[in-house]
Amino acid sequence: MADTAYCVKCKASTEIKDAQKVTMKNGRPAMKGKCSKCGTGVYKILSSGCKCNCS
Question: CA 48 to CA 39: how far, in whole Å?
Fold first, then answer.
């Protein structure tokens, strides 16, 4: 299962390349990476009920 995020440059939902799970300052989990089509940075905020090991 590939993670997807909306790319503003492509104006489409694309697969996240080099995805990293991060935690924002407010403690919410997020996914950070690059658009698989154009290479622009993409960021997806995950649900707060995330059961991943975000650090």
Answer: 27
